[in-house]
Specification:
Layout: E1 3-12, H1 18-27, E2 32-40, E3 45-55, H2 56-67, E4 72-80
Antiparallel strand pairs: 1-3, 1-4, 2-3
Length: 81
């Protein structure tokens, strides 16, 4: 299967969801190449950007799991390599 490189943007709207997000990210550590998190305390949310390198199935599984967490929104941008 062809590999993709891309960015996954995660908005964590509820502070209580952060632990679940981190747990999922830990499960998919093998496809995560980098991560940057920015807390926006005045807006009561956090934005996390992740650089991923994996198959569409692997990245889709990651974004699907994250999207099931209450208070979490996920978008991804992938390019073929």
């Amino acid at each position: 299967m062809e590999r993709r490189i891309g960015v996954v943007a995660i908005s964590v709207l509820h502070k209580e969801s952060a632990m679940a997000v981190n747990s999922v990210l830990h499960e998919f550590a093998e496809i995560i190449r980098g991560r940057m998190g920015i807390p926006l305390k005045e807006k009561n949310l956090a934005v996390i950007s992740i650089l991923v390198d994996g198959t569409t199935d692997e990245i889709g599984a990651l974004t699907g799991r994250l999207g099931q967490i209450e208070g979490v929104k996920v978008k991804s941008l992938l390019v073929k390599v």
